[in-house]
Design a protein that fits this description.
By secondary structure, this protein is an all-alpha fold. The protein contains four helices and no strands. The protein is globular. The relative contact order is 0.09.
């Protein structure tokens, strides 16, 4: 089982709150070890978004990069 399959398998039966908590904990931990899982989640988001939502995601990321690098 590769890391992507492992992440998806671990989230498979989680409800909304469990998924939200996992993402929140992963992001707030600031640990590089969580980056692969965050990447899998982002890939799911991206692949299941229409072009309008993708544009919103890009704009949000762009603004966040500017804010973090000031």
């Amino acid at each position: 089982m590769n890391i992507k399959e492992y992440i998806l398998y671990n989230f498979k039966n989680d409800n909304y709150k469990e998924i939200r908590d996992q993402i929140t904990n992963s992001v707030s931990s600031n640990s590089e070890s969580t980056l692969p899982g965050e990447g899998v989640i982002f890939e799911l988001l991206w692949n299941n978004s229409d072009n309008e939502l993708k544009d919103q995601i890009i704009e949000t990321v762009r603004k966040a990069i500017i804010k973090e690098t000031i």
